[in-house]
Specification:
With 598 residues, this protein is α+β, with helices and mostly antiparallel strands. The chain has 13 helices and 25 strands. It starts with 7 loop residues before the first strand and ends with a helix.
Amino acid sequence: MSIPIEDYALLSNCRTAALVSREGSIDWLCVPRLDSGSVFGALLGDEDHGCWSLRPVDAKATATRHYDGDTLILVTRWESANGIAEVHDVMPIGKHGSVAEDRGDVIRRIVGVKGLVEFDHTLRLRFDYARAMPWVRQVGTDETPELVAMAGPDAVVLRGARAVASDHVHTGKIAVAEGQSVDLSLTWFPSYHQPPERLDVDDAVERTRAWWQDWADKIEHAGPHRDEVVRSLVILRALTNHVTGGIAAAVTTSLPEDFGGVRNWDYRYVWLRDAALTLEALLDHGFIKVAAHWREWLLRAVAGDPADLQIMYGLAGERDLAEREMPSLPGYEGSAPVRVGNGAALQYQADVIGEVLVTLAAARDAGLNESAFSWPLEKKLVAQAARQLDRPDNGLWEIRGDPHMFTHSRVMVWATFDRAIRAVEVHGLEGPVAKWRELRSRVKAEIDEHGVTDGHFTQYYGTTEVDASLLLLPQVGFCAPDDERMLATVAKIEGDLLQDGLLRRYRNNTGVDGLAGEEYPFLACSFWLVEQYAATDRLDEAHALMDRLCGLVNDVGMLSEEYDIENRRQAGNTPQAFSHLALVRAADALARARHKPR
């Protein structure tokens, strides 16, 4: 049976990540990057699809866990009949904050606190999404046990404890007494290299602790829900590739939006929209250098003809994200198919250029200087938006039904020209501002005429349906939060999309997305509603909804994409950048409202 999504905690070295269950099992790890093949895939199947379990022999032992300060060092405290011990799980950050490209490490340090605790240690290695059973050999000694496994281009070395093989499973027992510690390490390396040198575990742990804490200490936030904001920003940093600058939408693929259904997508890539919104959240809290790194990534990824722009790329800017099914993994709770790659990469989503321009404008306002190529790139993107001005799209939610003129997308087209005009008028950059003003006015008039019905904004032209994405219109400056049309839209959204107090993206039963099945409330949308409430002086409702949403984070502060209200469980890929950046924005909105003149 699948472990609840909210029972997982995140480890990260800012290149890849692992998910550790409350029961001490690493059930998801792709190496060497987030979008590589998995070596542990039990998350999308069962233990036979790969996992690394470390828990007390005592079946009645109970676990509590937390992160060490504001880091991503996970501390799981086990209390058993014979004693207390902790497991400290960490993926080391390299020297000077770097991440070595030819290795990736996971450390599991067992620390005796009281009495004597014996642990079961079980390793099931299944490479390449459980399609490759590795060749495993013992190469160490009794004093320094070492196990090497390899398959195709990948290899790992396990150090620190002897593990005995039986039917493709390696097991062992480890006992720790009060004051003792045992260090296990699993290191990925290319199979055509020799195993990397042993880590100095003390140094690696301390260096990693200092790196994360130093980064978190720079966070600027004086408003409510500080703990959730800091944890969310740390998670957003974990999703940012330290080498390339690419910002992934989530750590996982194919965690279902509809348990048992087909709405299972691969989110381990860089959506321009999600990355842009993540950067806005980081910029608002003082991280300009991250914006500069991502802008370099953007320049590389979209280099060439703007007509070839994709809405998402690989973590280093790869363009080929062909979607395919992976039958070697049966899916979370049988939710099939498991998908690798994402066909939405080839969709036309008209809002994307606007999202990028809005974020780069925010970076410019925050003091990020232009590079030799940044403004020329932006002008090319604006020109591309102008060439596709009247083209319907697949929208923010990447529908797989017929394209439409989605109102949110049209507003982001408006925002494209608006931010380009601002770059000229405020920052003195060069561009055809008269043409951009004409296009901005044209798009605004079109939205006012075709994107409003019965006094409220609509999901797309020609319908009376609403969409939670309409809550973003004031956020980009298209209208004021208290615009009469916006207030009517909020009322319509509350009537049509609220489900037990949480917000769905849109009504699935209209057939607009072209997919079977339903889905659960989308957490980011509810945070957007908090922001709207805060901006229109509905502060009691804003705080009540924010408190409820923050109550949905798991015990280590993580949120997935959606929430199943009936069964009180998280759903969708995790941790989800969209959810965490929306949490940060909502908290900032509440802070602004607190200081707003009355």
